[in-house]
Amino acid sequence: MNHWTRLLNILDELFAPNGRKRSRISKKLQGFDHKTGEHIVRIEYRVKLPNEPISLIRQANDRLASG
After folding, report:
1. Helices (runs of H) and strands (runs of E) counted in the chain
2. For 14-58, what is each residue's pLDDT tens digit?
3. Backbone dihedral region for residue 63 (phi beyond 0: left; psi -120 to 50: alpha; all else: beta)
4. Most buried residue, 2, 16, 56, 65, by CB count within 10 Å?
5. d(CA 19, CA 17)
6. HEC-encoded secondary structure of 1-47
């Protein structure tokens, strides 16, 4: 089991503990912040849950976009 698989399993336990259908993780951005001296890695976690209404997903996406 590699590190990405371990991270995916941890995220599944946090966000989709019961009956996850499909999930995936991908690295979206990697860089260096010269101001703070920190490495930055932005990841995206996606999970498709069974029987979740589409309207609920749209509401969550709208909140994320506006926040």
Report:
1. 2, 2
2. 887 776 668 899 999 999 999 999 999 999 998 877 766 666 666
3. alpha
4. 16
5. 7
6. CCHHHHHHHHHHHHHCCCCCCEEEEEEEEEEEECCCCEEEEEEEEEE
